[in-house]
């Protein structure tokens, strides 16, 4: 039976332009979606924009445009960033769309009908930047001695009528969820943090605001708009057609994976499952939090002027070099630093040298010495079998790594094989065999071509464009690019196209 795989990115706030941090989570989710498609799963991949709330309203005011018009522009920018990064989303949800508004209201009604919402008044701290309520005990001293949120965001005292969600009723069930399903939340650091936060005791959550208008009206009480996080989290269901149980996309629920940044783990691992429990809806299978990027050692911020638009990096280094770098540089889930030097080194050492040269050397030997024709697969020597044995297990090995969101480890598994191929080609020296044993030369080249096919197939999710070009050069047809297709050897005799370099070395332009 085909397995369904529903993966989501956060929906991004439209209060500012997209940057490399946003692109990062989307690239990781894209790699997961592409991997599962190639594994034969039925994939639904959702991304989009989070357009309501006070933060967006204020950004629109500052720009002197109406919130909807502002959101239209920034949302289009996020979509074009996703397209530029080759994010293969199946749908792009916007929270200002009527389908989302109706769905979020239906979810609210369901939760309210089940008795989990009541009207009261909120008095407490709110951090606009985080769109988050904080308890007095969570605040810390800021640089000027003033109280700030644990994230460093300024807080203000808010006092207004509000609907509340009975979050405290769900404390035990949430702890049970983390306990019984250790795979629900990762990585370990985020899991431990959330568990200890919940163990300290959950307060009921204010889920509506009356002091501004830019939000989804609370059903039955138009004085209130929904708290932006209730609205935003509902996107994962609204895109599927909730509450229409017969909507074909509802078959994708529960989500297989919500990929988020570590800053918003709390909302996804506490609030979201609690809302769903209250509504009687199945819980997502997994929430995984990626780490944080700094730029040349510094936090990215508008005031420092170091906000990196991923499209600028792509223009300079190429898309696949950027996609590769962000997932290769640090174990997925950990924090990392984006530096030009590290990006160039990864590109030159691992892409241009380890992989690009291997392909180029092999393919040019085939072009020169075999007339560009794919040699037959014949008897394998022990060395051949050992190398190909490492390739054959890659789909299984990577599936296990993907299951635990270990994207960097998955790349390392492939690179081990690439390094083994380089050792093999140096040891077998097919260029020398040309003079002594032409048949053995053809066998060695065939082994290398098969290994490269396996490597390129497994790397497609990470670097779709360059691996498509590599597979073209290896004579692999479109139908032969799935993981399952690797089980069938290509028939010899195919004419391969003329080899062309795939990963150029990056040379810093001369400073004048
Ligand atoms: O939080 N490093 O939207 P947002 C790594 N609308 N990832 C980063 C990053 C960085 N420096 N900066 C941003 C919101 N991200 C809500 C989400 S979901 C129902 C609602 C990524 O625009 C990371 O995934 O602030 C983070 O969680 C997300 O962008 C926050 O985007």
TrEMBL record:
<keyword id="KW-0648">Protein biosynthesis</keyword>
<feature type="domain" description="Methionyl/Leucyl tRNA synthetase">
    <location>
        <begin position="5"/>
        <end position="363"/>
    </location>
</feature>
<dbReference type="InterPro" id="IPR015413">
    <property type="entry name" value="Methionyl/Leucyl_tRNA_Synth"/>
</dbReference>
<dbReference type="GO" id="GO:0005524">
    <property type="term" value="F:ATP binding"/>
</dbReference>
<dbReference type="InterPro" id="IPR014729">
    <property type="entry name" value="Rossmann-like_a/b/a_fold"/>
</dbReference>
<keyword id="KW-0963">Cytoplasm</keyword>
<feature type="short sequence motif" description="'HIGH' region">
    <location>
        <begin position="12"/>
        <end position="22"/>
    </location>
</feature>
<dbReference type="GO" id="GO:0005737">
    <property type="term" value="C:cytoplasm"/>
</dbReference>
<dbReference type="InterPro" id="IPR023457">
    <property type="entry name" value="Met-tRNA_synth_2"/>
</dbReference>
<comment type="function">
    <text>Is required not only for elongation of protein synthesis but also for the initiation of all mRNA translation through initiator tRNA(fMet) aminoacylation.</text>
</comment>
<dbReference type="InterPro" id="IPR014758">
    <property type="entry name" value="Met-tRNA_synth"/>
</dbReference>
<feature type="short sequence motif" description="'KMSKS' region">
    <location>
        <begin position="299"/>
        <end position="303"/>
    </location>
</feature>
<protein>
    <recommendedName>
        <fullName>Methionine--tRNA ligase</fullName>
        <ecNumber>6.1.1.10</ecNumber>
    </recommendedName>
</protein>
<dbReference type="GO" id="GO:0006431">
    <property type="term" value="P:methionyl-tRNA aminoacylation"/>
</dbReference>
<keyword id="KW-0030">Aminoacyl-tRNA synthetase</keyword>
<dbReference type="GO" id="GO:0004825">
    <property type="term" value="F:methionine-tRNA ligase activity"/>
</dbReference>
<dbReference type="InterPro" id="IPR041872">
    <property type="entry name" value="Anticodon_Met"/>
</dbReference>
<keyword id="KW-0547">Nucleotide-binding</keyword>
<keyword id="KW-0067">ATP-binding</keyword>
<comment type="subunit">
    <text>Monomer.</text>
</comment>
<comment type="similarity">
    <text>Belongs to the class-I aminoacyl-tRNA synthetase family. MetG type 2B subfamily.</text>
</comment>
<feature type="domain" description="Methionyl-tRNA synthetase anticodon-binding">
    <location>
        <begin position="375"/>
        <end position="505"/>
    </location>
</feature>
<keyword id="KW-0436">Ligase</keyword>
<dbReference type="Pfam" id="PF19303">
    <property type="entry name" value="Anticodon_3"/>
</dbReference>
<dbReference type="InterPro" id="IPR033911">
    <property type="entry name" value="MetRS_core"/>
</dbReference>
<dbReference type="Pfam" id="PF09334">
    <property type="entry name" value="tRNA-synt_1g"/>
</dbReference>
<dbReference type="InterPro" id="IPR009080">
    <property type="entry name" value="tRNAsynth_Ia_anticodon-bd"/>
</dbReference>
